[in-house]
Amino acid sequence: LEEQFRQAQKMEAVGRLAGGVAHDFNNLLTIINGYCEVLLTARPHTNSDRVAAEAIRDAGDRAAGLTRQLLTFSRKAIVEPQVLDLNEVVTRSAKLLGRLIGADVTLATAPSPDLAPVRADLNQLEQVVMNLAVNARDAMPHGGRLTIETRNVRLGEADVPAYPDLVPGRYVQLAVSDTGEGMTDEVKARVFEPFFTTKATGRGTGLGLAMVYGVVQTHGGHVGVYSEVGVGTTFKILLPATTEARPGNRPDEQAPVARGT
Ligand code: ADP
Predict the structure, then answer these.
(1) Span from the CA of 87 to the centroid of ligand 1 (angstroms)
(2) Can you tell me the mean pLDDT for 64-71?
(3) What is the ipTM of this complex?
(4) Do 93 and 86 contact (CB within 8 A), yes or no?
(5) Ligand 1 pocket at CB < 6 A
(6) What are the C-alpha distances in Å from 30 to residues 26, 55, 60, 85, 117?
């Protein structure tokens, strides 16, 4: 618990700092990227001008992506909760992932039918799945299997001691597994720390899992990591199921459940 508290404090402090910097930085990037577009559409210009402007634009886009991550992680991003089906998030992410993983990594999705809906921010959840999946890919440089699964979970009184941040009730579980290199206990203990990375400079920011942690906390959920060196890693996320109906569902498709249970 002490460790959890320290982690929460650290996240809060770094989050505040990062959020402030990212916000100002984003405004500056808007100016840089905007004028760069102006340069690229202005004619005539030489080939080397164009190459230079394109390099600026690409770096600007990458920087914008990074500040977006920082903002999400610092919780300054607008949270737009809606009732949604986690299976749809998985399907959408899987489409994007098809282009990100190499041919030697197979992607398997196992969406559970009759999955309970969750109340969550679609973009943030998609980012969560992507961060976990990209880490999984990075852990399998020689290929392997990336699996994304969902299922309904019910936590009883007997189960909650294993999840100090949760109360008994209905949850939806998202599990992202890989058959990659796994991690040592030392690494495992630090993965959610902001800026902790074992990747080469320029390849890792150490913010991916800190962001995952932040988003899951904001949603009242839990994230756990199970890993074995040389075997692989599984990240499991539990999000509270909602009893609200999804908009667009026909009344006869709605489960007859009471609110607030
Ligand atoms: P980054 O990916 O930029 O390093 P993350 O916060 O996403 O930042 O991850 C932190 C560290 O956790 C990684 O550098 C890596 O050492 C470890 N890690 C995360 N996911 C996995 C995984 N699926 N398998 C092995 N190690 C992992």
Answers:
(1) 24
(2) 80
(3) 0.98
(4) no
(5) 131, 135-136, 139, 178, 180-183, 187, 191, 196-199, 204-210, 233
(6) 6, 16, 9, 34, 36
